[in-house]
DNA sequence: AATTTTTCTTTGACTACTCAAAATAGTTAT
DNA sequence: ATAACTATTTTGAGTAGTCAAAGAAAAATT
């Protein structure tokens, strides 16, 4: 059985390796886990020893298939728990990430299966993050960010890729949570601002940095 | 914050001290926690250091008020989680003890409060064990065991004080789960057996040892 | 009372994880 | 090509929790 610590390392490696070639630097991992780089080097070698990852000295770490399997299962637990906390327990979506961080390591596969059924087999969590299937498949999402999508087209928010309570609070009060219908009304690269409008609402101003953490899809309805 | 290990020690001390004078022997605690006695001595001194317990060398350990507060909260989490697993997730009551053992250390007070509301503020779990209140009160149950209650009186099962999956399976298939209505029909101290009957069912034979783990209350209806 | 048994405590050692700080490798700039 | 910078690795040490086995105290036997 992988310890909570090992599960955490694997989860963070998985998240950081998305998009790239799978290699994650020690520095990025240390930052993400809030430990010093030396600790990461030590642990990554232990991970490699256990067959969960391969360590390429001075280059980075990459998950093995076994490691990815564990990481995906942890991520699945995390996101299903978040969904439960929001949909069933009606908790604030800006808080559930922290809660799920603990529960993801304590929940058994048996409980997970029941929870999945109770929730109706969801494929994404309240932040729009995709939930890996029990067989370890994660639907590849290739959405465009609000920062670089065409103006004036009808859009639907599908995902918010920043789990910080502060950002999520802002998104919620702005009404930009997943499933919100919006369109980009203005874009000013000089000032680094874009403005979006909900159908029938007043314009909302966002920094480019903020808008790059909101993923959208084309929407039929305005 | 008390670690999972500390929480576990406190919980086991609380459970073992019930009924007695509050003093728990190192041996009993070691047995209950499945560690060697030397480990318990070491840990109990750390608990005392942290203000959770008082260590009386060669006699035993006793919780302080702070320790009891923590222990009751862990027990509350354990039993509310069990109730959730059975009532909401429809899990087998013989398995939920093991599951709750993990979850009791991972669930926050915020989640607990929501869970409590969802379940309708129950006062006992599926095994009939009393659930401590959020303020740390545990309803004192002074029930009689099936082993030494009067014969032929109508009884209601209120609690099963053995969490082993095997025993719970037996109780369930015998139909002696909490709220079952039964009466003692025979008692044979020589063979160590007693027989009970559910209203309209056939007699069930139990050892005295087994029947001492089933608590009952007088029942109006037969 | 002396001896045996039981229970408890101590000691030394080990695993898992962590940090601080020094050493090293790789990269970039001069 | 040398210097400087940055990222990584190594080393030494510390905390939390555990066990095995030796030693000490208390209780039970004889």
Describe this entry's structure for a reader.
Two copies of one chain form a homodimer. Chain A has 222 residues and is of the alpha+beta class. The first copy, chain A, is built from eight helices and eight strands. A six-stranded antiparallel beta sheet of chain A has the order 3-8-4-5-6-7. In chain A, strands 1-2 form a two-stranded antiparallel ribbon. In chain A, a hairpin with a 5-residue loop joins strand 6 and strand 7. The N and C termini of chain A lie far apart (50 Å). In chain A, 36% of the residues are buried. Chains A and B meet through helix 5 and helix 6 of A and helix 5 and helix 6 of B. Chain A binds a DNA duplex (30 and 30 nucleotides) through helix 3.
SSE blueprint:
The structure is a homodimer.
Chain A: H1 4-17, H2 26-33, H3 37-49, E1 53-56, E2 60-63, H4 65-87, H5 96-103, H6 109-118, E3 144-145, E4 155-160, H7 165-174, E5 181-188, E6 193-198, E7 204-207, H8 208-211, E8 214-218
Helix pairs in contact in A: 1-2, 1-4, 2-3, 4-5
Chain A binds a DNA duplex (30 and 30 nucleotides) through α3.
In short:
Chain A is α+β, with helices and mostly antiparallel strands.
Assembly form of the protein: homodimer
Secondary structural class of chain A: alpha+beta
* Shape designation of chain A: globular
Order of helices and strands of chain A: HHHEEHHHEEHEEEHE
Question: Largest beta sheet of chain A, briefly?
Answer: 6 strands, antiparallel
Question: What is the number of helices of chain A?
Answer: 8
The separation of the N and C termini of chain A measures 50 Å
- Please give the share of residues in helix of chain A: 40-55%
Report the C-alpha radius of gyration of chain A, rounded: 19 Å
Mean pLDDT of chain A: 95
Low-confidence stretches of chain A: none
Biggest protein-protein interface?
Answer: A-B, 18 and 18 residues
